[in-house]
Specification:
The chain is an alpha/beta fold. The chain contains 14 helices and 11 strands.
């Protein structure tokens, strides 16, 4: 089905505003409905449907039968929202079943979700699909897209038509993309009729998905090319396949590629901005580490002058000060605690969020955290042992400083990288501009029909 479709609007009294009658709204709706039906099967609009490869039903039957024979015991779902089972006239469901039976699939292994009149009947049907008694299940998004747990043996699903909303597509494919499916590899088929209303349907789905993606991300493009925008590209690619005019098809493909490159370019720019912010934070941390290292080296010289008697006296003093009640906050600690010239701070409220209680020793503006326990004697031993090994700290702090320096240099190198997508984007933009000019010229050259 090819050709152009135009919508006319009547000018209002001012010559600038427009109104559309309700009859024309109904006409547009009828065009949309009939267009979808024709893209599915021309017999739905009382036209002759070419057979063989030009028929969605034929293609779907061939694929379904191939999978049926190749994977013994597997099940499949065929989704179709238009032309549901009816006895009085032609419909896709009965046509599919008739052709599947002709190809050798027993009729009892084919089921319609529409045959279920209650939830109990649905549950029994789903159980048959999961154990392989029903091998091909046909249904609509509304009846089969939500709450159908039939994934156990599900090898493939087939989209004969295009749902209205991206969420409908997610629900359809959610029947097979879920835990409990015994197949590591599955197949998803999307059937399109070139030059049909399918192009508009996929365009609509693409537009809706892009709006949702932009809304959720709060920006023009998603955070990465593999996020929600990936669905947009998929819909756009299928739309391009449905367009029969060569120039329009090339234009759609180039626009899809441009959109993808712009996402990657924006992601590259955001990554570089994040790197610059990280550099600032790392430089602040480097300043802190340098100051901490200087203070610690001074403290090492001071601790080196403490005698063994001084450490023993410190042990007895800390054992009295740092009881379990003081550490846990059940008893208020004295306003000023110290040991061997180091101040002792008990964080208080912060202890409630800590995995283990701790104290802070401080001197010359540098703080040192020491884990505590329930035993006063154990706490006193931890403090003394820490001071005895104090000379090891400058090396560890120096290593942290050096690592921070290396990370800053690495991030600076990355932040200097040029955007690798800009040249390709400019080239695509120029190519798209040329194609649009050709399309416009062709449209003006011939009469509108």
């Amino acid at each position: 089905m090819t050709g152009n479709c135009h919508a006319w609007c009547e000018p209002g009294e001012s010559g600038e505003n427009y109104k559309v009658s309700s009859d024309r709204y109904l006409s547009v709706l009828k065009v949309s409905t009939n267009g979808r039906k024709a893209a599915l099967d021309l017999r739905l609009v009382r036209q002759v449907q070419p057979g063989g490869e030009n028929s969605k039903v034929w293609r779907c039957v061939q694929r379904a039968v191939e999978i049926y024979k190749e994977h013994d015991g597997c099940s499949q779902i065929i989704f179709c929202d238009y032309s549901t089972p009816k006895t009085e006239k032609f419909n896709i469901y009965d046509e599919l079943k008739q052709e599947l039976v002709k190809q050798g699939i027993p009729p009892e292994e084919i089921a319609f979700i529409h045959s279920c009149r209650s939830e109990e009947e649905k549950v029994r049907l789903f159980e048959k699909v999961n154990r392989g008694a029903v091998r091909v299940l046909l249904g609509s998004t509304f009846k089969l897209g939500i709450g159908a747990n039939v994934q156990t043996r599900l090898k493939a699903i087939h989209h004969l038509d295009v749902p209205w909303r991206p969420s409908d597509m997610v629900q359809r494919e959610g029947r097979i993309l879920r835990r409990g499916n015994r197949y590591q590899e599955i197949k998803i088929f999307r059937y399109i009729a070139e030059g049909s209303f399918d192009s508009y349907s996929w365009q609509l789905l693409e537009t809706k998905q892009r709006f949702i993606s932009q809304f959720l991300s709060g920006s023009e493009y998603q955070r990465s090319a593999s996020d929600l925008e990936e669905n947009v590209l998929t819909y756009a690619q299928v739309k391009a396949l449905a367009i029969s005019q060569p120039l329009m098809k090339v234009l759609a493909e180039k626009e899809n590629e441009l959109r993808r490159l712009r996402m990657l370019s924006n992601n590259h720019a955001r990554t570089q901005e994040a790197q610059r912010q990280t550099i600032t934070a790392q430089e602040e941390q480097l300043t802190i580490l340098k100051g901490r290292l200087t203070a610690t080296e001074q403290n090492v010289r001071y601790v080196g002058g403490i005698s063994e008697d001084g450490f023993r006296a410190a042990y007895r003093s800390v054992k009295v000060m740092l009881t379990e009640d003081v550490i846990s906050g059940r008893t208020a600690s004295p306003p000023e605690l110290s040991v061997l010239g180091f101040g002792i701070a008990i964080p208080g409220v912060e202890q409630l969020n800590a995995q283990k209680p701790y104290i802070l020793l401080s001197r010359n503006g540098a703080d040192y955290m020491i884990d505590m326990g329930p035993s006063p004697a154990g706490n006193a031993r931890r403090v003394v042992n820490f001071l005895k090994r104090f000379h090891e700290l400058p090396k560890r702090i120096g290593e942290q400083r050096d690592e921070c320096l290396r990370e800053i240099e690495r991030l600076k190198e990355l932040s200097r990288e040029t955007n690798p997508y800009l040249d390709a984007i400019r080239s695509l933009e120029e190519g798209i501009k040329r194609i649009r000019s050709k399309v416009s010229s062709k449209a003006q050259a011939g009469p509108c029909t």
